[in-house]
Sequence to fold (444 residues):
Amino acid sequence: MMHTSGIFRVAADAKRHKALRYAVLHDFGRFFLPLRRATRISSHAATNKMLRNNTLHTFHRLVALLALSVLADASAIHAADGPRTSAGRLMHRVDSVLSKRQMDGNACLDTAYVTMPSERLRLQLNAEFSGINVTTTSPADSSRTSRMELNSGLRTAMSLGISYRDLSVGFTVVPAGVLGQGDTDMEFSLANYGNRLGFSLLFRATDTFKGSAYQLDKEPSTDVSTAILSALVPGLTQMANDSASATKLNEVEIPRGMFTQRLAQVDGYYVFNHRRFSYPAAFNVSRIQHKTAGSLLLGASLLDNRLNIDWQTQVNDTVLSLFNRTRLIHVAIGAGYGRNIITRHKWLLHYSIIPELIVYAKSRSDWTVSDGVESTQQSSSMKYQFPRFITVMRLSAIKFHKRFYYGVTANVRNTDVGNATSLQISNTWWQSQLLCGVRLSFHN
Fold:
């Protein structure tokens, strides 16, 4: 049993507990409201300043509140005559509800394959890396194809997650933003990994693209079989076309800031063999996979992709400018397969892929070209070429040592839309995460 009676007395002090709770809520207001205003005016400098001024103070109080709540709960559980304070009684009731939910969750599982951990508290530290790649292809003339390849800057973040049973709170810091080392892309991602149903939400504002535009001698193939391979294995047909043309013609560098993107995507899945196959075991470690199992998967995605080009150059005394605003909306559904592999050395290896056929597509592209004296505007839409796919892939490898674990996870979403005879856009978002964590228990 844990000998922390002195700390329990602090947690049981109702007045201090209540005061701390209000202090944390006050700090949340001080942290998020100015940050929201800074985000609205798109000032990275203001956002970074708010982060530096408020992050550590708010986080310390948040951890303190969660720690006192857990300690108060532990004190109530181990006390011989039950919880004595209002805070203790409240936490005891919350724990009872979560305990019942955990028992009901185990009843829906084949416990020979998947179980819920007995430890109540889980601490996890993550290092996250993400980026996005965009490739556009369009015909320059009857014998040449124009291509633009862009890569965003590498986004790095550190996060700490604290979970009590199935309740979790996380805190993320972007080192480049906090230290004021220049502009960084804004990304918000949320994933709810359930055994039967799950979803992930992504929003990313990317301003750090840079790359090149060039021409190739031969146009890419547009037959159905090649289109399917291109969608399922991004870059396959591109490499074949590049090998056919030994040199890139008329290559031009695209500087940072010329191309920007606002990407929003929602993905959902359904697991058929949810009693034996567990997504949570492979990603948020809230379940334990004991034996190898796989399952057929259903998936659906909604994508809203906005691309902007602002380009200006000066030739002699003439200023030439090009502005483009393109918006793509797609809905896709599909089926795939996932598998959790348990090795004899206590590694959990996961892979899953869900290719989703685009069943609804809408696009609009507005162009404005100006020579400083006269400007021309034009609007168009992209023709849909069957078939086009949104492909969602997930990988993970996690090693377990009793209560301690570590590993790596990866998520990739690729979208291939448009028509190679007019305009084709391939968009790939990826995220990789290094994680380590520990499970803690208050049991005797």
